[in-house]
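Backbone geometry tokens:
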Amino acid sequence: MVRKGFKWRSTTTGLLWAVVQATTYSIMASYAGTDCSGTPYSVSAYEADADCVEEACSDFQEDSSSVSADMVTFSCTSDYLSALRQVFGDLPYIIQAQYTDEGCKTFTFAYGYPAWGNCEGSYYKNESNYVIGKLSTTDGSASLQIFNETQCLSSSLYEASSASKETLESHS
């Protein structure tokens, strides 16, 4: 969904008004259990279409044979990064954003995970989305490991990535 706002600037001949389009993002937080209290195990952000709908907390009604999310919240925002950060509050987290270009101008999606070193659940059953996120207190780096199985065993490691403190500071 594209919302229109206005920006103005002053010129020597008067004021110019230009239409500025803002992109709307859908934020989904996934929770285990029977409510949406505590920290979600996964948060995602996608560009929303014109009918972005917010839901406070509800049973996830998709195909239960493929989805493991028990409860979800949906929100709509023009600032996905602030929305993802807000979900985690003061707790440690890792946000991984993907863009289609090297200049990071064309957003594709973003995921956020708690970063306390535990194996966290997956939104989809039977997919490689079980994660361990860690923030190092010694050198300020971050690491994210993605696993194919629920127990996050080293034999099921699918992908691992890390970023130095300097990289994190330049991409915040």
Remarks:
- DSSP finds two helices and twelve strands in the chain.
- Helices lie at 80-88, 165-170.
